[in-house]
Amino acid sequence: MAPASFSPGLWGVTMPPRQRRDSTAFLLKTLAIAFLLICLPAAAHAKQKHFYFALNLPPSLIGEGAASIISRYNDVRKAVKSQTGFDLELKTYGDWEGVVRAVERRDADFAALPGYYFAASLANPRTRVRPFVTFMSDGRISSPCCIYVKKSREILTLDQLFNARIALPDESHWVVLSRVFRDNNNPFPPAEFFEKVEIMTPESAFLALVFDKIDAVVADSLSMTYVLASDPRSRETAAVECSATLTNPLIVHHADVPAETLGKIESTLLSMHTAPAFRSVRNFFKTANGRWVPAKKEYYNDWESLIEEASKYGWVADFRASAGGTR
Fold first, then answer.
1. Distance spanning both ends of the chain, measured CA to CA
2. What's the pTM?
3. Residue 70: which H helix or E strand, with range?
4. HEC profile for 258-287?
5. Which of 27, 108, 183, 192 is most buried, by CB atoms within 10 Å?
6. 103 vs 34, higher pLDDT
């Protein structure tokens, strides 16, 4: 039996009273330090007010420049901050792959992405990119990609564009164009069909078409709706061929953005098309009859299927060999 001055301690070890007090104090200090190490980062996250929004701003030879886009974004940034208290600072990248990498590494917390590049990120089983909101236009979350020409050229079919000079924004549009060719049973793939392929934003490509620098523009109808509505020369253009509809672009977020932050920003974005604070960009929503709606990963199954098809038929390799060059 233990002496009266001793009592059973932790795991049956006995200690004198003073040592028990010292041990208890040490244990409490250790637990307090562990608690702080675990909870302080989470508390800091909850208080985070500054976030980064990634956007692709590719070089543009003509048309709407980066300064105009950044100016409009800053208007949105101010409005979001006034509504939520969160500051979404802009980070720009030269291509969509750079935007995806930024979100994966959390160099950016949010980003705007075409459906193609979001779907491509899902091929990584450890991706940290999450869907946030997608754009709805005329009550639909999908739209086609079309080939636009000048009416004065009297081009009525895709076949009439043989040996033409075309412009498109990026790899995703090339993949969609390749799908259109396959659906039409065209004997030539785009890489052999067109004389020259230029990489341009829809705004720049439209002006190049107007001034006869190119013969056709490949662009999603959602983007072109805004471009054409903002220029009276749009009456000179027409779509000669369109793809099946595909899910519209979206805003994504990194998986570790706090839920409270996501809730406040989502609520703001869902009312963006009518909120007075966003009147500087209201014209875009009005032109497209659009709004943001919550996004789900499964909405982009159509793009995932298209990516699988592109891999099967080598369309991406064709794009990288053809883009910016002459056949």
1. 97
2. 0.82
3. helix 66-84
4. CHHHHHHHHHHHHCCCCCHHHHHHHHHHHH
5. 108
6. 103
